[in-house]
Amino acid sequence: MGSPVFIAGAGVISAIGNNIAENLAALENGVAGMSEMQYLRSAHRHKLPVAEVKMSNAELAELAGMPAHITRTALLSAIAAKEALHNAAIENFDELRTGFISANTVGGMDKTENFFPGFLNDPHKGRLRNIIHHECGAVTELVADRLGIKNYISTISTACSSSANAIVFGARLIRQNMLDVVITGGTDALTRFTLNGFNTLMIVDQQHCQPFDENRRGLNLGEGAGYVVLVSEKVAGSLKNTPVCVLSGYCNANDAYHQTASSPNGTGSYLAMKGALQQSGLQSEQIDYINLHGTGTQNNDIAEGTAIKLLFEGHYPPMSSTKSFTGHTLGASGGIEAVFSTLAIRHGLIYPNLRLETPMKALPFIPETHFKKGAAIRHVLSNSFGFGGNCSSLIFSKA
Amino acid sequence: MFIQAAAGISPQPSFGALLTEPAVYAGNRLNCVEPDYGQLIDPKMIRRMSRIIKMGVAAAMDCLKTSATEMPGAIITGTAYGCLADTEVFLSKMIENREELLTPTAFIQSTHNTVGAQIALLLKCHNYNNTFVHRGFSFESALLDAVTLLQEQHMSTVLAGAADELTDTSFRLLSRFGLYKKDISSSKALYDGAAKGTIAGEGAAFFLLAADPSGNDYAQFNGLYTFYKPRDVEEIKKNIQSFLSFHAIGMHDVDLVITGQNGNVHEDAVYEQLAQTIFKGKSTARFKHLCGEYPTAASFALWLAANIIKTGEIPSCTLAMSNDKRPRRILIYNHYQNTYHTLYLLSAC
């Protein structure tokens, strides 16, 4: 597939930890991040568990080195992006052509929904400071400015596949020699807007979610951010820490079935996985682990499972949904799961699918339920599927 | 890269109307002249669509119709604000009903990728589908995605465009930020006097881009370039010159420059300085008195430029200065709020 794109660093913040080390420890110890709402103020507080990052905005702001009054979406983004850049340890960063391509779905909605009640009462009321960063792009920009990235900035929003598409676009700009380094992934904070939106669709679980379980009831919403640092072959060769991972394949396809529901056969999911395999030049039996989209909704898991059945028949690799730990972080999920995928390759890990009790009857495979260390992981497939039929799959491989 | 078709829904009824009788607006708010959607979209689907979705989908369908394309290789959309009307509906209901008894329709359609998704759904198009939401670079990001996709993969066409809507609420809020002129009698007077503020606009425009010529193209799309927060006008000049050099031409090869003046003295200063230096003596055209200012307004300029090259006619209502030459090569330079700067180059096929 032409010149390879290397992963030089990664950073993550989620309900199970504020950095890579904390996330890995929780994944190893089987500690999930869902609990009763502590930070989001919502009427559903005692009814709907959520997977919150366990810090107030003031604490996040201190960690991010940014003002506490700005949107939580940007604070989460800055923390994970800084960790990714720090891990990449690119010495001549300032001399390179750098980009920040970040995804999100809520933008500054956490602030807008505080502004709106006053505004609805009186259109002259409400502090403008609370809506100045409403746009999704504003979130990216706050962080790009903080990181000093200027050559290229952009924002993608394709619902739950947003981050994966940001990574795809970033990789393409490196392959076409337009940029040397791209920090890419995504961020989303919990908001009443999204919580209530998903709740009206009746796909939010009132208990802790059970992805790929026969008796699954829905998803838990989460929040967080995850980024990888993509670099060209030339930059990769100049680094002290030689990258252990490349992005070997990717594909974006559309289900074209329904605005919010997946087609029963998972057409979009199938096309995305198949396209990513084709691009990487790999056969399905060469995939060592699948990080599932696995939201825990009836609809997603059967569609994704059916597509996997079609594509992997006879050679089912270990697979799991880490949303059983982090909840569904929407625009951030593809970024967080890309980080988990690269860590699986680096450390030889397979993550467990928590709370699996009864495997789905319609599927001939069972997700992994135990944490495994020391596995030979060369190729990982990561799925991100969303509203609007947007389906994207990424394949990470050992460099 | 070639523009096989260009379609726009804007405060102007059509390109033909721009040549003969452009729409003139009183006040500081321009809304789109909406077409008969029944000609372009399945009537069963129209009923459920909000205004921005209808505008975006109709522009896309018009584009496909013009180029007789059944299935584009990719669908890529840029929108700065997303589906504002549906966002407001869900947000207001959520607050008024205290998070109880809500229905999902507005939430479902508030998602930023709804326009692109609805186009895919209507066409049953399983191909690449992406949506960019980066303020004054939303449309440019979509185009860069399209261009690099056409370069990387051997797909024949990409449908790329932009859509942004102006609602009562967004107009009210953006007015509170002081974006718009308070007393303007006619959109014709947008550039008169040295005053603050601009006029509000909206629109949707889609383009069918192809790697190879079809023999019936609007124009050749030579490329685009964006730059963020330049330090000063010297850096802007440098960027324009290196963009032209990259395409192996100089300013003397450009027949028409379309620039993004919006009537705000603080934002137009850059254009004035360029008019006196590197754009001196050039035919120049302006467009924001026709479509208003909004983050994806450059999509209107690209639609305008593609039509000018195709027809060989420059609407006199756009001309700031003319040397009566049939334009074979057009440079567009636009900036949004002095932050997002964009260059496009088009030429005759």
Structure commentary:
The complex is a heterodimer of chains A (399) and B (349). Chain A contains 12 helices and 10 strands. Chain A has 399 residues and is an alpha/beta fold. Chain A has a 10-stranded mixed β-sheet, with helices on both faces. In chain A, helix 2 packs parallel to helix 3, helix 3 packs parallel to helix 5 and helix 9 packs across helix 10 (298-312). The mean pLDDT of chain A is 97. By secondary structure, chain B is an alpha/beta fold. Chain B has helices spanning 15-20, 43-46, 51-66, 84-96, 105-110, 114-123, 138-152, 168-176, 233-246, 265-276, 288-291, 298-311, and strands at residues 2-9, 74-78, 128-132, 157-164, 203-210, 219-228, 256-259, 283-286, 319-321, 329-336, 340-347. Chain B is globular, with a radius of gyration of 20 Å. The chains are: A alpha/beta (399), B alpha/beta (349). The interface between A and B is large, with 63 and 58 residues.
Write the layout of secondary structure elements.
The complex is a heterodimer of chains A (399) and B (349).
Chain A: E1 5-13, H1 20-29, H2 57-64, H3 72-88, E2 98-103, H4 109-121, H5 136-147, E3 152-156, H6 162-175, E4 181-188, H7 192-200, E5 224-231, H8 233-238, E6 245-254, H9 267-280, E7 289-291, H10 298-312, E8 319-320, H11 323-326, H12 333-347, E9 379-385, E10 390-398
Helix pairs in contact in A: 2-3, 3-5, 6-12, 9-10
Chain B: E1 2-9, H1 15-20, H2 43-46, H3 51-66, E2 74-78, H4 84-96, H5 105-110, H6 114-123, E3 128-132, H7 138-152, E4 157-164, H8 168-176, E5 203-210, E6 219-228, H9 233-246, E7 256-259, H10 265-276, E8 283-286, H11 288-291, H12 298-311, E9 319-321, E10 329-336, E11 340-347
Parallel strand pairs in B: 2-3, 2-4, 7-8, 7-10
Antiparallel strand pairs in B: 1-5, 1-6, 4-5, 6-11, 8-9, 10-11
Helix pairs in contact in B: 3-6
